[in-house]
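Action item from last week, closing it out:
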Amino acid sequence: MKTKSRAERYDEAKEHISQGLSTIEELKDELQEWLDNMPENLQGGSKEDELQEAIDALDDVISNVGDAIEEDVEFPRMR
């Protein structure tokens, strides 16, 4: 069995990260839907603040991870 190259392993790792990023985006969408459909008696309270803070934090994660997986790495080749 041939060992995968560093570049192949890096590409696999980026794919795993991309899948995780999709899950994080789904979670953010779920929280946003919860916030958007919050009953009036809970609007303006601490639950609304908690939801918005979590959504903002997930947005930051999405942005940072998205930027990270865009990076290409050139691995040196053995000759």
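Closing note: The mean pLDDT is 90.
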